[in-house]
Amino acid sequence: MIADRDSSGAGGAELGTPRTRIHARLSYDGTNFSGWARQPGRRTVQGEVEQALAIATRAPEPVQVVCAGRTDAGVHARDQHIHADLLHPPLDAPAASRLLRRLNGLLPEDVRVLALTQAAAGFDARFSVRTRSYSYRIADGRPVDPLLRSHVVGWPHVLDLAAMNAAADQLLGERDFAAFCRHRPEASTVRRLLELRWHRGDGDLAVLRVTADAFCHSMVRSLVGVLLPVGFGRREVAWPRLVADQGRRIPEVVVAPARGLVLERVEYADDLPGQARRARRVRGATGNPVG
Amino acid sequence: MIADRDSSGAGGAELGTPRTRIHARLSYDGTNFSGWARQPGRRTVQGEVEQALAIATRAPEPVQVVCAGRTDAGVHARDQHIHADLLHPPLDAPAASRLLRRLNGLLPEDVRVLALTQAAAGFDARFSVRTRSYSYRIADGRPVDPLLRSHVVGWPHVLDLAAMNAAADQLLGERDFAAFCRHRPEASTVRRLLELRWHRGDGDLAVLRVTADAFCHSMVRSLVGVLLPVGFGRREVAWPRLVADQGRRIPEVVVAPARGLVLERVEYADDLPGQARRARRVRGATGNPVG
């Protein structure tokens, strides 16, 4: 039951036209995209989705989509969440289902809409997020399966996941992740890291699962970059924590390639409006791109 | 200990030059290949592998590669086996490992060499095969994960795997599969089907696993095509067996798309020379392409 008349987002609508906020879940192969965020002259996920939504709903104005995690160029998503405020009557389940099918008919094969509903009251795809989870996949000590090469990175040495996890444990909790973030003036780099754990999965790959309230720019790929040298014995288990404590980027930490990274899961707060208020207060209105 | 001086394969070698048979395992993404078999002016897996082998070993003559299962255009392999007779001294383990690395440096990203050794005495990548196993993957009742779209086919309805398996069970054993084979004069279409079973796997996909001593051309894709209508209630469980018993192709059986099909595993006989003799006798020297 979301049909607010003022609303954030696109202007130019006649006063009194009802707006309906939709909530959709997407998956995409980031290989052939210049990332999530719309950029003139570039193929982006946001650009494709906004265009498909505008066509599917015959929108009289440009559609603006807000996502949970603004992925970088080459980064993938298995469960990205978005919202958009459409000049459209409220959507019942059959209408939402028709819109989902129409979108998948319009979108290219590398973006799929998994689910689409009218948004719950107070839902904001970005500010209602409680946690975001990413995965990073490495084929270590053997060739990358060609069928999975879009989202698996090769590494010549077999990795010692136990050592990497011992190092990872020391990075958990709320701290300043400036050493792993691309610097942006006035943006906080304090984050709460809830999970950072390697396991063997998906046919014996080294798979990292990482969960936080939010990520700053290039943070996951820098975390992979700081743990990798522990995994093949070039650095001690204590090193990643020492790097973190320096509080600034150092050239020894390599940012791992984008293609191994997948946004896997987004969790939303039960108290949607309250969570959105808290998130806006903590990170400011501009926030940070993630990945 | 394979260095036979006469050997099958490429001619033009000087008498007395030692030949070494290598045995390698490959995986490839068939999307951008016109199938396994070399064809002039087409990009094929065999063509790429033969060229890389010729360069890597500085072969004085064209290299000819023989594979376990000649996959069609668009069909993939996770464990294809090959042999090739090289004008090359016997390969010890370090030399084999160097050749493997050199090949992976030369080959494009969509073909990888997984393993390479000197072949066991009597080994023939094609005629020593005891069984071949393929998989076929369908995302039923939901969109195809864009990251897996190279090898997963979409289907709008949720499939009843129990019904499909009941029908599949009636096709097991040794029989004439002419109803599921592209007709080739003088080629036998009798095969021994050992396994034909759907299960939920790889993140809730409908996955078919099928094993036989050998497959005739388009056989797996026709088996998928005859089982699919049972899975969504258009045909009875008894129908696929009735089709099989007709002994000729009928237009009602659609050949499923190539991209869902992966050669997953090849098993070799313990008694390699004996198995090769039996296989040559049964299927003749030309044999059949599979997939």
Provide tags for this entry.
homodimer; 291 residues; alpha+beta; Alpha-Beta Plaits; 2 domains; 23% helix
Give a description of the structure:
The structure is a homodimer of 291-residue chains. The first copy, chain A, is globular. Chain A has two domains: 108 residues, Pseudouridine synthase I, catalytic domain, N-terminal subdomain (Alpha-Beta Plaits); 136 residues, Alpha-Beta Plaits (2-Layer Sandwich), CATH 3.30.70.660. With 291 residues, the first copy, chain A, is α+β, with helices and mostly antiparallel strands. In chain A, helix 1 packs across helix 2 and helix 3 packs across helix 4. Chain A contains six helices and ten strands, in the order E-H-E-E-H-E-E-E-H-E-E-E-H-H-E-H. The two termini of chain A are 33 Å apart. In chain A, strands 1, 2, 3, 4, 5, 6, 7, 8, 9 and 10 form a ten-stranded mixed β-sheet that branches.
